[in-house]
Amino acid sequence: MVEKVNNPSVTLEQARALDALDRAGTFAAAATALRRGHTSVLYLIRTLEDALGFRVLDRTGYRTRLTPSGRRVLEGCRSLLTAEAELATTIVQLRAGWEATVSVVFDGIVPIDPLLRAVGRLVHEQVPTRIDVRAEFLAGVEEAFEHTAADLMIAVLPPRVAGLVAVELAPLHASLVARADHPLADGRHDERALRGQLLLTVRGSDPRLDLSTSGIEARSTVHLNDFASKQAAILAGIGFGWLPDVLIEPELARGRLRRIQWARPSTHVFYPRLYHRGQPGPAARQLIAALEGDRFDAPAASPGRVSRPSHRSPRPARRR
């Protein structure tokens, strides 16, 4: 009779012995598979049963078999061995220079799909790096990048901090739109007409964007939390505002939204860039390469160019 003990634990050696015994069928075959002596495997199973307080083997028949309880223990043992193998692989990868984590802060106006595709490739390759993705807007992107010491930043505003390495991403087009039955949806309007309507923005704007509506944002403005909320508000007829074309193309095609025609431009091109502090690790380099090679609506730029921060709205850098 096996005496029951408190706080049982299973060692990796015991887990390997039970796994090998189930796979091989006999103690002798299990010992051969483990490259251990026959008595060593017997000892590991006996000490396992002592630790658990119940039998894992049914020894009454001609062939040694696992008891129902032993079968459940075996499931846990195999999970333990799988975790050990995964940990061993992770340690080897970390020793090889893979980052433990890579943090990315991006401006919410930039489509997240290319970033998710890039992260998906790393997940598919089973790299040990954990990817932390966070969305902010305008000046909040750089604030979060600095405050959290993030590794990568995707921004449409030029950074205030010097010395960052910049990689150009594909341009992003946006339009000034309103719902089809909004007073601004038909005809051509002057600035006074726009000032008389409610302008919707995402957490405010920034003069560095150089939007055509920058002169009327001081009044009749509502700040929303994200572009999904902003689109919903515009579709509800609450006001008008700028939205990325990739987000509103279906609504424009259906006629639910219309571009506003007025005295100044109703379209704008953002030039997002990916910034890092230099010498990124292998996971960060893969993310950078994947994002640089992806497309929003125009070809991406060549790699690794240093951007010179400007107080004006970013323009495409000259190609070499």
State the end-to-end distance: 81 Å
Shape: elongated
The top level CATH class name of the largest domain = Alpha Beta
**Number of DSSP E strands:** 15
Structural class: alpha/beta
Largest sheet: 5 strands, mixed
Strand content: 15-25%
Write structural notes for this entry:
- 30% of the residues are buried.
- With 320 residues, the chain is an alpha/beta fold.
- The protein has helices at residues 12-24, 27-34, 38-52, 68-95, 113-124, 139-147, 191-195, 227-235, 245-254, 282-293, and strands at residues 57-58, 65-66, 101-107, 130-136, 152-155, 165-168, 172-179, 188-189, 199-202, 221-224, 241-244, 257-259, 261-262, 267-270, 273-276.
- Residues 1-5 and 296-320 have low confidence and may be disordered.
- The chain folds into 3 domains: 12-95, Arc Repressor Mutant, subunit A (Orthogonal Bundle), CATH 1.10.10.10; 101-170 and 273-293, 3-Layer(aba) Sandwich (D-Maltodextrin-Binding Protein, domain 2), CATH 3.40.190; 172-270, D-Maltodextrin-Binding Protein, domain 2 (3-Layer(aba) Sandwich), CATH 3.40.190.
- The longest helix is centred in the first third of the chain and has 28 residues, at 68-95.
- The strands form 5 sheets. A 5-stranded mixed β-sheet has the order 4-3-5-15-6. Strands 7, 11, 12 and 14 form a 4-stranded antiparallel β-sheet that branches.
